[in-house]
Design a protein that fits this description.
The complex is a heterodimer of chains A (333) and B (324). Chain A has a domain of 70 residues. Chain A is 33% helix and 21% strand. Chain A is built from 12 helices and 12 strands. In chain B, β9 and β10 form a beta hairpin. By secondary structure, chain B is an alpha/beta fold. Classes of the chains: A alpha/beta (333), B alpha/beta (324).
Chain lengths: 333, 324
């Protein structure tokens, strides 16, 4: 048996943003404030697997996506891609790595130059990351990619506005695949699409994963989509991971009170006329997060310890890791 | 006795263009009883929001009601002028939109906006209006309503702003509320709170709600009946449980099975190939026939009307007796 091979390993990743600090703030003697958008997140993704990241807006999941592909530098922490630390990599090493991972964004239209033809949009990563490719190679590859994602080679002469939302997302997947990457970061790839188109794109992504052994970091606020796509899932709340585990177990036996809240509140088809007991409260402002466990103001199991001490992720003995004092103390069901 | 709060009959909305006229909503009819929540679901461009806008008289030109009738609380409203419609809007029918900031004035406090709306429609003095405003804020679940009354919209979070908009819509105790994607911009835990609030309105105040959304899950939990729209027409209309558990239109059936469910381990989702046609290229016959797995010759030729099968209505030749 071969050891599982993590393609991407993120360890204790942090990204803090400074809030604007004006002259007035200084005169009033206010201290500088930072937003801890990502505050100590660790993720390990094995080759050919999908890691799903869920959480509500502002929890830091998109910042993790941007950090993972190097679109912004982390404040601290390591990102290792195929055992190479992205922060320590030499320039040449980094550009070799760059072709091996790509990103798919939520809104395909705003991630495309609307004045370019589809051929140029799909070929752009090859032109920048593989400058040695000949024009004939590129043209052949563009035809092949468009057919692969369910469009036709003739579409390469068209412009983005001639396509529907779902077709544009197919184009951005073709672009992401152009350098034959092994790893795709997908940030809410179907959130802007209608459900019937969403299922087409999710099926396409699964087919591509099977055919090319792709590894995905799949980010979405939609729990059912993440549940469908992922092998492992991480739940984020205010910049921290509160629960990580195998998808099937996390969704059938959620441990953290926040994961339970999310699963309780997601509207589902089989809950006709369901009378929920909505949990009160909202996600607090990340500029001024609560002390201790940041979920404690909304948590039904809160104790003095939760208000004081930030819980760390601990294995629950059945494959899931949970950051919760109540679970650790055996107070949670 | 007519107990319908809302009746829409053969509504047709057109967008005249230079060379042709686009039909965005065609032959849509439905009724809404007191306290009932009707979900209107469909993909973008299906005409669901336009139908809602036509009911409250907020259709933007060049869009216009080309034919059909709309009654709200027994009064015909589709032929009213802007001044008369203004009186009905807010008084008999309230509106909630996706982005709460489109309904709120950022320069006025929440209290000023509530008091102004209340006094426009109800014969109350300033103090009475203020008391009503505070109790409305409490009713929609805003903590510390006395203090919140004095604050501006930017001091509220997204979920709290949507509650303020619901309070505004409730100012004059309307009989009908048109809610267009009221939870789409909100996170799931907040969405659940707003859905709970909308359901309570129907139960406690007898307010009827037309809930326009693309989210079948929201409809399943909230609505009593659901209307499924496709290319401007009703494809299916029936009780929520019937439409979700035993959809009769192939489009509804495809839509339901293409939604992933939590914990369900499927390798592939069901998919409806293709996409909804644009208004400029609506196919002949049944507009769904090019994507329909059951399409036969008649579907290409003739457009099916809504058939009533014991209260569950469907526009599909598969269910027509003359086909069998």
């Amino acid at each position: 048996m071969t050891m599982p091979h993590p393609l991407l390993e993120i360890h204790d990743l942090r990204r803090h943003f400074d809030m604007p600090y004006s002259l007035l703030d200084r005169l009033l003697g206010r201290s500088r404030r930072t937003v801890k958008a990502v505050d100590g997140v660790s993720i390990s993704i094995e080759k050919g697997q999908t890691f799903g990241l869920v959480g509500e807006s502002g929890c830091g999941k998109s910042t993790v996506a941007r950090l993972a592909v190097g679109l912004m530098p982390p404040s601290s922490g390591q990102i290792q891609f195929d055992h190479v630390d992205l922060n320590l990599a030499k320039r040449q090493q980094l550009s070799d790595l760059r072709r091996r991972f790509q990103m798919v964004f939520q809104d395909p239209y705003s991630s495309m130059n609307v004045r370019w033809r589809i051929r140029d949009i799909v070929a752009e990563p090859m032109r920048t990351l593989k400058p040695e490719s000949s024009t004939a190679d590129i043209d052949g590859r563009v035809d092949e990619l468009l057919e692969l994602v369910g469009l036709s080679a003739a579409d390469k002469r068209k412009y983005p506005h001639e396509f529907s939302g779902g077709q544009r997302q197919r184009i951005s997947i073709a672009r992401a695949l152009s350098t034959n990457p092994e790893f795709l970061v997908c940030d809410e790839p179907t959130s802007a699409l209608d459900v019937s188109v969403q299922s087409q794109i999710l099926n396409l992504m699964k087919d591509l994963q099977r055919d090319f052994g792709l590894t995905y970091l799949f980010i979405s606020h939609n729990l059912s989509v993440v549940s469908h796509m992922s092998d492992h899932v991480g739940v984020m709340y205010l910049g921290r991971m509160v629960e990580v585990g195998p998808s099937r177990r996390l969704f059938s036996v959620p441990r953290h009170p926040y994961t339970k809240l999310l699963l309780e509140t997601v509207p589902e088809l089989n809950r006709i006329g369901y009378d929920r007991k909505p949990m009160s409260g909202e996600v607090p402002n990340p500029i001024n997060p609560p002390k201790g466990c940041s979920f404690h103001p909304r948590c039904p199991l809160v104790t003095e310890r939760c208000r004081r001490e930030t819980p760390a992720l601990k294995p629950d003995g059945a494959g899931t890791q949970v950051a919760c004092h109540a679970v650790e103390e055996g107070r949670a069901a | 006795m007519d107990t319908n709060v809302l009746s829409v009959e053969n509504l047709r909305i057109e967008f005249p263009q230079r060379r042709r006229t686009l039909v965005a909503v065609d032959d849509v009819s439905f009724d809404l009883r007191r306290g009932e929540v009707l979900g209107v679901v469909g993909e973008s461009g299906a005409g669901k929001s336009l139908t809602g806008a036509a009911i409250i008289g907020l259709l933007r030109p060049p869009g216009r009601i080309a034919s059909g009738k709309i009654w709200i609380d027994g009064k015909r409203v589709d032929n009213l002028g802007p001044a008369e419609m203004n009186k009905i809007r807010g008084r008999t029918v309230g509106a909630i939109f996706q982005d709460p900031m489109t309904s709120l004035n950022p320069l006025l406090t929440v209290g000023q906006q509530l008091v102004e709306t209340i006094r426009t429609h109800l014969p109350l003095d300033r103090a009475q209006a203020r008391a009503r405003a505070v109790s409305l804020l409490a009713e929609v679940g805003i903590p510390a309503p006395e203090q919140r009354f004095l604050q501006y919209p930017h001091q509220f979070s997204g979920g709290m702003r949507q509650r303020v908009v619901i309070a505004l819509a409730l100012c004059a105790d309307p009989k009908l509320i048109i809610a267009d994607e009221p939870t789409t911009a909100l996170d799931v835990s907040i969405q659940a709170q707003i859905i709970g609030l909308l359901k309570r309105l129907g139960k406690e105040h007898g307010t009827s709600v037309v809930l326009v959304t693309h989210d079948m899950g929201v409809i399943a939990e909230t609505a009593d009946r659901v209307a499924v729209m496709y290319t401007g027409r009703l494809a299916e209309l029936g009780k929520v449980a019937d439409v979700i558990r035993s959809p009769k239109h192939p489009y509804t059936a495809g839509l339901m099975s293409s939604i992933p469910a939590i914990g369900q381990s499927l390798d592939r989702l069901h998919q409806i190939d293709g996409s909804m046609p644009r208004l400029t290229a609506i196919p002949s016959g049944c507009a769904f026939h090019p994507r329909c797995p059951h399409a036969f010759e008649r579907c290409q030729r003739e457009r099916p009307d809504l058939l009533d099968l014991d209260g569950h209505k469907v526009a599909c030749w598969l269910h027509s007796e003359s086909t069998l």
